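Protocol step 6 of 9: fold each sequence in the batch and record its structure tokens directly after the sequence line. For illustration, a two-sequence batch is reproduced in full.

Sequence one:
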Amino acid sequence: MDQYIGRLLDNRYEILEVIGTGGMAVVYKALCHRLNRLVAVKILKDEFAGDEEFRRRFRAEGEAVAMLSHPNIVQVYDVSSSESANYIVMELIDGISLKQYMEKKGVLNWKETLHFAMQIAKGLEHAHSRGIIHRDIKPHNIMVLKNGSVKVMDFGIARVMNKSNTLTKEALGSVHYISPEQAKGGHTDNRSDIYSLAVVMYEMMTGRPPYDGESAVAVAIQHINGGAPMPSTLNPNIPGGLEQIIMKGMALDVRDRYVSATEMLKDMEEFRQNPAILFDYHTVMDDSTRAIPGASQPRTLAERKVQAKTGVRPGSDSARLHTAAPQHRATGTVPQERDSEAIRRAQQRRKAEEKKREEERSRVATTAIVICSAVAVIAVIIFLIALFNGALLNQEKELVEVPYLEGEVYTDGFAERYSDFTIRLQPQQYSESWPAGQIMHQEPAGGSKVQKGSDLWITVSMGEEPPVKIMENYTGVEADQAYAVLSGMGFQVLTRKEASYVYEAGTVTRTDPTSGTELKDGQTVYIYISTGPDLVEEKMPDVLGLEIGRAKELLNQLGFTNVRAEAVESSKPKDQVVYQSVEKNTMVDVTAEIIIHYSQGAEETLPEETPEVETKPEEIVEPKPDPEPVTARLIFSLPERSQDYTLDICLKGTTESIVSKHIAAGETSTILDLTGTGTVWYDLYIDGVFEREQKVEFTHD
């Protein structure tokens, strides 16, 4: 059994199960007891945790990444580095990695590739603007959510991993995507991330990375030398403009790549609006305008050979720079015969290697032709069988005629009128020809015959596009309808789920931005969808021994809304809690009834009269001893902050901290044990700034 499962890290994160394993860490699902939410906890493996310098850099990088906040970046909540465990706490993603998605779907179409790539680029744009380079962009570090959005994870962690630059077997998963400068151990910047993103796009469009080999070193050398086949030679369906974007991002010389993710996004957006576009790129190498070849410009065999060796396209100024005769400066004379012999041997080696590569290509080509022929024959047979079976099955299945819906007004209950079909909503669109609310397009077309129960997709008009777009009030509206409207307005719509006792499951509870807010084109909009009433549980605290008022306050702060307090006879001091109906540390519904008993106090009795005793002169009255210090459990109410902070408590008028505690974002109270006598005043500081003073009464039971 895993050593961490069942453990409680920092008295806050309860490790539940393993959800992933990487080269440097293990990822667990965990429950945050402080905020009552599920999180992902990435714990360093022992071989890394034993290195003090590694732990220091791990924590520093994690804290820097925690400052990032973007819809396409996995949020980092907390970082901890201690003797027991070194870990990062992140949001728990309900989805799969892009690598798993690609393995499931194979080659992606260009629309899906562009959809994912633009979101990754937006995440990189945000990180680069904060001075953070990812250094390990690969499909394994990109999560695909159920709604089609993506989130990039492990920002900054690659920089910690790069403490050791050895290309081992464990590095093989990353080396397929590293930039040439990373492979050489040189300087990296935001253009290194752009190269890796272009490699990921290459793999999405072709089903394979541009370079592969039996070892990490072999793959790294290929990145350094360049010469990857054009994507269109592997997938003829890739548009020329998109191929140009990929190859510019994968340029060997960093000066030939995009300067920033923003520049790359600009070209992606131009291509999205006009998929037939071809770009002319201005490069630093030759200081002239040069067009990267598109899909319709196949390379010759000689050109492929040269580029496979040098990474430079023949005929370009770059090629002339590479092939120019080198100038050497020496202190002595080298015999010409030795130079000629070395050149002859090098030429023989190159010819032998080229012959070997040609033979390998011939074998691969022959094998590919045989396999493709076999697959084609099998596909034809399957198609004929499916066609024959389909004709027979359709005779038995009920066919219905598709109604003509264009021009009809879409209202509540529309789907109920067409029970023979499953009505699906496409994103709504602005139109000058169709009034708002009318159906402007349907698929399949009216009058066609389909099987009963088939999907019927409709597009509803939003009327003419307004000059200023205002967020409408979508609370209580069906989530699918709100999504269709906002997507049609050109916004990036992300969904979140939350429990609600007011709104039915599947309807919108709220939006961000709120209704009435002016919106910008392309803005990200969040809609929160009700999951219906949800059971909220909280761990029962130990209130025995607390004063009844403090016990009630603690229970109320934890969310318990049904607390019944009863006074009972007891020998305990008055108002002290002597019983609680739920045992401590038990998870219980916050709406359940909690019964607590507190003491009425001992009955007062009149003291018996005692005869006066005459005090003798020699008797000395002993002074009363100083009262014993009392330790009390106290509740301090705190301001709600959006970020974590440090709370320091000092004696009034001093700056020496008695207690220093880390407070998580969103917390509004904390419980502390303080020791003192009588009445004590304390000063509270938040991140070193004075917040307020508070009086505490220490009394003996």
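Sequence two, same batch, same settings:
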Amino acid sequence: MSFSKFTQQDYDVIAESYAQLKEAARKRCANEDELEIVQKAFDFANEAHKNVRRRSGGPYIIHPIEVAKIVVCDIGLGYKSIAAALLHDVVEDTDYTVDDLRNLFGDKIASLVEGLTKIKIVLDNEDRAKKSDTYSESLQAENFKRILLTLNDDVRVVLIKLADRLHNCRTIDSMPEYKRDKILSETMFIFIPLAHRLGLYEIKSEMENIWLKYKEPDAYNEISGLVRKNITDLEKPIDDFIAPIDAALRKSGFNFQIRKRVKTPYSIWHKMQTKNITFEQVYDLYALRVVFTPEAGTKESERDQCYHIFSIITGIYRYKPDRVRDWVKHPKSNGYEALHCTVMSDKGVWIEVQIRSKRMDDIAEKGIAAHWAYKQEGYISENDSEMDKWLEKVKEILVSPDVNALELLDIIHNDLTSSEITVFTPKGDQKTIQKGSTALDFAYGIHTEIGNKAIAAKVNMRLVPLSYVLRTGDQVEIITAENERPKREWLQFLQTRHARNVVIDYFKSNKKEIAQGGKTAMAAKLESMGYRLNSDSEEILCKFFNIPGRAAEELYFRYGLGLISMDAIGDILVPTSTSRGLSWPFSIFSRRKDQPQADKDKDGQYVIATCCRPIPGDAVVGIKNPDGSVTVHKKTCPVADSLASKHGDKVVVPRWENEGEKKAFPARIALKGIDRVGLLNEISRYISLVMGVNMKKVLLSTEEGIFEGYIDLSVHDKSALERMIRKLASIDGIQSVARTEL
């Protein structure tokens, strides 16, 4: 922030921005008294932030105004939240106190501002402190814990914080690159999944697109250009596709709207990355939303009307059965309800159609705020408890005394990003469980004693071990024995936190015995590597594994149960560059000029991360290690996002240097196509002879005339790899070539 006297132009900008907010707020305020409180909050904040400017140079008050706009327009909150958004920086950045706000605006608005202020204070302290080079202490993680703890008090604090984060992302261009990388990593690791879980799809999508725009600008611009071109080319065919649907629904008497939607650049990029496909192979690029207002007094329920519309649309166009998603009967855990199907147009284009009622659409657009609004109005869906169940589960995790901030951040991230599947009990009762869960996870989900006494399971009437991984639609029966007890090896395959905690708690009755055995085993492991188990190694290991209270007994207990990997210990106590990745001389990278001086002075060795293996030309970010070296990741690497989310002060921005003598870097390309005689020879000849690239490994398999697989290469830079991919894609028979992770 900086200070300089506002000009008339500044006052005009402020007036225009607030006028837009006031117009939006008027629609949410029940009466003039509520609107008057919004006006009073603006006047107070405007005076408090007078002559204060943001880094971009604009008046600071624009930020709280824009946050308040998001709160009302994108989330749908009421006047108290609008006022709190306008006031959210006053206590932190001025001499006013929470008590001052309480006297002026009442307890609720003051408590909302106080919740937001506590979050900001922790985050600012983390930025200022930078006092520890270890990975065990993280005020940044404490900050996120504080954000999540507000779910216990008032979820509106989290929603306003999401609005604050969205506006910070919108204005991120004015920040230096290392700061951008930290903020975007935090956004991807915790705020985007949180927005998704709370049903705020528009906010989630916008933050994802901003993340991609700055993390992979070339990909973002290329995909955006291709989308614009496709929209222009297919505008008339899409209108022609809609026409018969519109006519049929009108004839059936539905009150509805049809909206066009194009897949976002991020969702296209993500699908291309995860499926190893090209832009042209993303067949569900377009979607239509049919939003209907249920007919009053009809015998058909809201759900039945969804199915009726589905039958009309699929009576006109052929649909893809494996692409039907019934989230009306089985809603997502964030309360999302809709019926999705993918149909083929007369022009041969696959188009997704989403069918929603007005209520479903409001919840899909405004998330938890709309969910609760309908609940308060007495519209109780049979499925609306899913959101409440999730909030209760999060609250239970948050208050657990055994979980520190870093562990909590990982637990919540995993919970936010994990997919769910639907399985059934022997009696046909539906149960939702985390994707990847085993039969034993299911047993513990039913009841602790069933899990403790489980010996096997029947899935779809077939006997399977407890480690069997469940799939959607499985019918599961657990076989128990009265004398059975939990086993340590169960911890090697249990996936759900609840089940793992139950088993760990069971063994705590023998904690001293298990810890003693763990200590003996750990000492033997270290001795075999030439190290001793002493107070120094205990401290290092406790810090690395985030052991609460640095308790050595807890360390040995976890090791004795097999919760700590034996292989990881050597990497911690022997911090060589090879333990983290491929080591290269310092001259491959240089520091950016906008990096803080304190970081510039700590020159060390750069290490290529093995999780994503960047090559020259990739956009990269560095994470500083305790020994002074820097591990270099792709900017889009989820591991880098995770580390930067917890240790933002470790983020540096290295830059590839042009080398006279180019080095070779490992890369992998995935291929798929139609097999023919001589195809492999043509591929290898081009790679080896024309491009002069060394192939390290080739793994291609053929089945019924279709081949697919990958080739590991050594390349000098990204541009050479992309030239090779373009050429290989033009070879007859090859349908797709894409760079993929090793």
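Proceed to step 7 once all outputs are recorded. Observation for sequence two: The first strand starts at residue 2 and ends at 3.
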